[in-house]
Amino acid sequence: MEAVVASKPVIKVAAISGSLRKASFNRGLIRTALELTKESIAGVQMEYIDISPLPMLDTDLEVDGKFPPAVEAFRQKILESDSILFASPEYNYSLTAPLKNALDWASRPPNVWADKAAFDSDGNLIDEDSKERMKQVLLSLQAFTLRLQPKN
């Protein structure tokens, strides 16, 4: 008789940087999180999701209920994720345009942000003013927000 081995659940995390700059500190934070997750956190699978290919939101680009290919691919990655890690600079006391654009595309019906755990840390992955705005936007999109606290 064969023993049944239960596989351990994997938490899928989509990591998104609000900066498009290649040498961005936020992209660096995400690269580090990816490395640390791969090396030392069992049961977590993290993937960087590049938002630079997304066109600016234009509902005229939605044809017969379909989105442009880059948007479809992005939405699918979010849909397949259990949670989202955001790292973003703050521009003019708010979210960056690329990040807001990504949030908007994924909120088009059907909203793929719904029921996702979205998190940042107190390690300034997102500046304070943007954190509050991000929280408001995500809550309006039916995601729930978490704040990671550093160990003391």
Structural class: alpha/beta
Uncertain residue ranges:
none
Main sheet: which strands, in order across? 2-1-3-4-5
CATH architecture: 3-Layer(aba) Sandwich
Oligomeric composition of the shown chains: single chain
Q: How would you describe what is shown here?
A:
- With 152 residues, the chain is of the alpha/beta class.
- It has a single domain, classed as Rossmann fold (3-Layer(aba) Sandwich), CATH 3.40.50.
- 34% of the residues lie in helices and 18% in strands.
- The chain is built from 4 helices and 5 strands; from the N terminus they run βαβαβαβαβ.
- The protein has helices at residues 25-40, 69-80, 97-107, 128-140, and strands at 11-17, 44-48, 83-87, 117-121, 144-148.
- It has a 5-stranded parallel sheet with strand order 2-1-3-4-5, with helices on both faces.
- β1, α1 and β2 (44-48) form a beta-alpha-beta unit.
- It is globular, with a radius of gyration of 16 Å.
- The mean pLDDT is 86.
Strand and helix map with partners:
Elements lengths: L10 E7 L7 H16 L3 E5 L20 H12 L2 E5 L9 H11 L9 E5 L6 H13 L3 E5 L4
Enzyme class: oxidoreductase
GO cellular component, one term: cytosol
Protein name: NAD(P)H dehydrogenase (quinone)
Short description:
34% of the residues lie in helices and 18% in strands.
What labels describe this entry?
FMN_Rdtase-like_dom; 34% helix; Rossmann fold; 5 strands; Flavoprotein-like_sf; EC 1.6.5.2; 152 residues
